[in-house]
Specification:
The structure is a homodimer. Chain A is mainly α. Chain A folds into two domains: about 50 residues, Arc Repressor Mutant, subunit A, CATH 1.10.10; about 140 residues, Tetracycline Repressor, domain 2 (Orthogonal Bundle). Helices cover about 75% and strands about 0% of the residues of chain A. Chain A is built from ten helices and no strands. Chains A, B: Keywords: DNA-binding. Chains A, B: GO terms for molecular function: DNA-binding transcription factor activity; transcription cis-regulatory region binding. Chains A, B: This is TetR family transcriptional regulator.
């Protein structure tokens, strides 16, 4: 007996996403076929189309789910009282969250160019919403006189690039613990922006 | 009459590289065929093999040429007397050089995963040689007592990631001139590391 589409989606959705993310991250979006994703999940290619209309929709889903995750987790993060505490919280959060979702972060940077213009615009808007969270902290500290930043937008982009860079070199069990890395980056960021 | 391989290579080499870089940057290494590169250059696919043994060799050539370029241009850059001047020179150089070679920089980050392990190791060694240049400046400033950096390796990675990030958002003719962007980043970096 054929399963209903609904229940089928519920069962395979997370597995389809996980398989697509793994293959896209390993081989690149362009090189991966729907057939390969289906094989990785262990279903027929036809079954995949019950879950997603096409590979583009799958990529957009992955990138959107990641940004939604970033935004909701940051919203739930304790931030302390003032802008200095909030900045420390942001640095710690961004490094920790990025390292625990390294594959999703990698994909988010690598495959932006493969989104359709409409999908790209939606992901960009979510990224901007996240950047705005940091910029608001910097602007608040500026008003309070605790930060001296010549341009809050540039400082935002500089800090996020610096923090995301950790993903390119950090290895668990390496020379420095994650906590120590977070401390060192907090120290550099604090000094870069303080009044 | 058939041309000699040597003279043929001299004629088409730069055009092959330019075409490959353009196509790899636009569509990704995996999605581009030797046939497409040949068509872009305006030669038969067979002629391409007079210049390069395969697509992998072409990718390695592009990434290696870029790193050789970075290193030789940095070596030729005026650096002033002490570590503070050298750090300002490095920030200005890295932003300016990266923005003028945006396609090569993009490719260098995007296609590392498509290098063979042996090619990857050679490119990594060149990247490390470049990172070592900045780390030496930080270490010198540390000894001289003008910088206070808890970990020169981490500061190196943080600064390079921050500077390369400019490529993702900077647009010529945008809100800020390149000179102004360089100044703002110099200011942030100087403050992040000073004693």
């Amino acid at each position: 007996m054929a399963r209903k589409t609904g229940s089928h989606s519920e069962i395979t959705g997370p597995r389809v996403r996980a398989a697509a993310q793994r293959l896209f991250a390993r081989d690149g979006f362009a090189a991966v076929s729907m057939r390969q994703i289906a094989a990785e999940v262990g279903v027929q290619a036809g079954a995949l189309y019950l879950y997603t209309p096409d590979k583009q929709a799958l990529l957009f889903d992955l990138l959107k789910a990641h940004m939604d995750d970033v935004l909701s987790h940051w919203a739930a993060e304790p931030k302390g009282g003032g802008p200095q505490d909030a900045l420390e919280a942001f640095v710690r959060f961004h490094i920790r969250f990025s390292l625990t979702r390294a594959e999703a972060v990698f994909l988010s940077y690598m495959e932006l160019r493969n989104l359709t213009p409409e999908h790209f615009a939606r992901i960009e808007a979510l990224r901007r919403a996240y950047e705005d969270q940091l910029e608001a902290i910097l602007a608040e500290g500026q008003v309070a006189g605790v930060f001296a930043v010549p341009d809050t937008k540039l400082a935002t982009m500089a800090i996020i690039a610096m923090l995301t860079g950790v993903n390119t070199w950090y290895r668990e069990g390496g020379r420095l613990s994650r906590g120590r890395v977070e401390q060192i980056y907090q120290d550099m960021v604090r000094r870069a922006v303080r009044a």
